[in-house]
Amino acid sequence: MTNTISDFVAKSGGVVGPHTxxxxxxxxxxxxxxxxxxxxxRTGLVEYTNDGKYIDTHWMPTDSDLGGAVKTxxxxxxxxxxxxxxxxxxxxxxxxxxxxxxxxxxxxxxLADPEAMKRFGNTVVQWDLHTKQPKKVFDVPGxxxxxxxxxxxxxxxxxxxxxxTSKIWLIHKDKAxxxxxxxxxxxxxxxxxxxxxxxxxxxxxxTLWVNTFMDGMTRSFDxxxxxxxxxxxxxxxxxxxxxxxxxxxxxRVYYTSSLLANWDKKGKDNEQFFKAYDWxxxxxxxxxxLDFTRQKLGRPHQMVFGANSLYGKVTIKK
Length: 318
Hints:
This protein has 318 residues and is mainly beta. It folds into two domains: 1-139, no CATH class; 187-318, YVTN repeat-like/Quinoprotein amine dehydrogenase (Methylamine Dehydrogenase, Chain H). Helices cover 6% and strands 43% of the residues. The strands form seven sheets. A five-stranded mixed sheet has the order 7-11-10-9-8, with no helix packed on it. It has a four-stranded antiparallel sheet with strand order 2-3-5-6. A hairpin with a 4-residue loop joins β10 (123-128) and β11. It is globular, with a radius of gyration of 19 Å.
């Protein structure tokens, strides 16, 4: 059965730019990127039943409306982007990005606009998974994007990376059982703004793959000690690269190229591809390369793979 949601903005109370879809028992959560009032970064989480019936909107905490959350640093900006949960801790985490007025702007024009560069999120929010109430707002400066959580039931941490400051951040439980946010590593040369985008944790929680859009690189970090990630490998995937997904057995890594239609590179550097590599623990070897431009397939963006990564879906943006 297919149910098309055509009234998302109206039902949600003005949330714009649905991004992450996350399945929960009997529910699904959609994160937003913006709102229809000022097209800024203030947004929310929109909750639906599995068959697509609207339930509720949970707005991101702001300075003027924390929604019961504790502000741990300078920021409570209300921005949104990605979402992950750790059910055994009744914890849900969201990251932040930028609003409609920025992501609909030409990338080069935006980078040259000082006011636009101020309109990026700087927070990760911890939520109560059951009640959907925000609990803590952490300062994570520089637009934290994807959140990926450890797989092992004894590993109480997640990672995110910041697009503008090129850092890896660890969201972890401290000895007192409280969640904290800590900067733990640089990605490439932060002064060159390589623009980290997607990240992927291997199933044994020992490797973190990090993609950087501007230089088209993928980097492998040893995260055996999550507080001290160490880069151990890097490889250029293309002129630009966005999403990365490592297979459950750790032997294959998949990549797509498109970040945003208005932010993808121009001319010959506007490469649009899906690529698959074998990974032997030391180097990547390309096995599949699908040229989406030549095949007139649009822009490949997000990948959603099953547990064994034998079957999957590539979302195409036209």
